[in-house]
Design a protein that fits this description.
Shape: globular
Radius of gyration: 20 Å
Low-confidence stretches: 1-20
Strand order of the largest sheet: 1-5-3-4-2
Number of helices: 1
């Protein structure tokens, strides 16, 4: 009963968000206590529930298992930023809700039309960003709220050579999407510096990875030549810190510093 109530709360919580504007980005491992606003089954978070300021923590029931539901694959969605989500005892894969980058899908309502399919993707009720192309639309089902009788109980999307206006009369109504440019984020250089600790992730390479673009955080990067971290001399890598750029000072390994900045593609 508790999980059902949480799922209902999540649906209500996400009503005001445009599902196509945000996606879940893998940001390493963590957990935090409470702040849950919903849950879904499976070890991958559903992009349909990604909204600004939320964090998802997921367990596959094998490599990562939640002691409150051992052996069960599920995700919880928490009303807390990824940077602040620390200290929990049930470590799982953590995801941050971040603005979709580049060309993405925009939700247009509920509908369907017969035929004109040009592609399909499976496992999610949100369309694949890689398949967002001009002159197409996507119709998606989660297998629960909206179900396609040809694949009952399955979350998937079909892509059609049609417009939103012309896609009518189909017998399997689902979420309809059209391609659109949306707000994005990028790493913006912020000088040379460092701060001790507060790391929550690390990637190889001398520039920060877009998957870790989370508001309220900072990245510090070293190329191993011009700027080198004495803990890993000669290595090119970046660390991501749960602190804003202007608060990141006093560290002993100065490198290039970055902060997330919003942009329009």
């Amino acid at each position: 009963m508790k999980q059902r109530v949480l799922a209902i709360s999540l649906a209500l919580f996400a009503v005001g968000a445009s599902a196509a504007d945000f996606e879940w980005l893998d940001t390493g491992l963590t957990d935090c206590t409470g702040r849950d606003v919903g849950s879904t089954s499976g070890s991958v978070p559903d992009n349909h529930y990604a909204a600004s300021g939320l964090t998802a923590v997921c367990w596959d029931g094998k490599t990562y298992s939640n002691r409150n539901s051992p052996g069960v694959a599920f995700c919880t969605y928490k009303n807390i930023s990824r940077a602040a989500c620390v200290g929990g005892v049930n470590t799982g894969k953590a995801y941050a809700a971040a603005p979709v980058k580049e060309f993405a899908w925009e939700e247009k309502g509920i509908g369907d039309c017969a035929g004109r399919d040009v592609n399909a993707s499976y496992g999610s009720s949100l369309p694949s960003k890689a398949l967002a192309t001009a002159g197409t639309i996507a119709v998606c089902w989660d297998g629960k709220t909206y179900n396609n009788v040809n694949n009952p109980g399955q979350a998937f999307c079909t892509y059609k050579s049609a417009t939103v206006e012309s896609c009518t009369g189909g017998r399997n109504p689902g979420w309809v999407y059209a391609p659109a440019k949306v707000a994005a984020m990028k790493w913006q250089a912020g000088g040379i510096g460092d701060c001790t600790g507060q790391d929550y992730a690390q990637t190889d390479g001398k520039t920060p990875h877009p998957n870790y673009l989370i508001e309220g955080t900072a990245a510090v990067c070293w190329d191993g030549v011009e700027h080198s971290n004495r803990n890993a001399p000669g290595k090119a890598f970046c660390t991501y810190k749960t602190v804003k750029l202007e608060q990141c000072a006093g560290g002993r390994n100065p490198g290039w510093m970055y902060s997330p900045a919003r942009a329009i593609n």
